[in-house]
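Morning run. Coffee first, then this:
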Amino acid sequence: MVYMVITAALIFGLVASQAAEAKKVIGWVEKVAILPEKVVLTAKIDTGADNSCLDVREYSFFDRDGERWVRFEIAEDGDKGEAVERKVERMAEIKRHKGKAQSRPVVKMVLCLGGVKREAEVNLTDRHRFKYRMLIGRSFLDGEFSVDPSIKLTVEPVCRGD
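And here it is:
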């Protein structure tokens, strides 16, 4: 019985180790490109957040073909903004540590981190008080990345077909 437990533990450890090795190691801050606009932002990698979010100070809703859309500006670090339009996937109720819940539009965006290009849900919010204009959450990172909090800015966004 002890032999079976030890063998199972070794096998589990080997499988977990191989899975971790297959993931790309990134730091707690990385450059991320938003496609197809090719806007590059410095983003905080946040394993405590379910989804990603983007600093958008102002946005406006409009209808297109009977669906709700949102228009907003995004800009590379320090540059003038580029007008962007995305279909609103849903409105998210975000619980805040202080104060009442906040309703935020959620859109789908194609993000590129390192050589990984994925579509992700991104909620739009005012992050002007934060150092990083974008936050990358677990739903984008899942299965692809391991985060090493002792490093930062280790990869450039270089996705094929961007």
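The longest strand covers residues 82-94. Good start to the day.
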